[in-house]
Amino acid sequence: MKYYNNIPITVQYVLTNATFFATLQAKDIQHVLPQTCMQTLKLIEILSPKKVIMLSGYNTARKIRGLIRNSQEKEEYDISIKDYQGWEGCKYKCSRGILKFPSNKEISYLGVPHPAYKSYDCIDKFATLIADFMAE
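Structure (tokenized):
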């Protein structure tokens, strides 16, 4: 069992929301993005999941990398980003990579496009892509 400050961590899934990265209103809250990004990374490090799935895929990973590099903690955190085609003929940009933490922990992530406003065919393919990633 994992512990944080003597509190047992027994969760298998954690959902957190970074939707503001991709919304039109993001320009109105730019001042809070660095802090919320670093807090999310700290939460991921504490919970130590085996894998992370990010919606908005490539764009979110790029935004996180930029926020890390502009933060005071840029020496402690990092994110590698590799373009990744989810399937043959995929017109949506996906990404895969590694989140790196101060504890030297490295966690694999998959970034997939947000399924909102995509066709059912694409959503089925995203689901398969995620299932394959989780099975690795």
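The mean pLDDT is 77. The first helix runs from residue 33 to 47.
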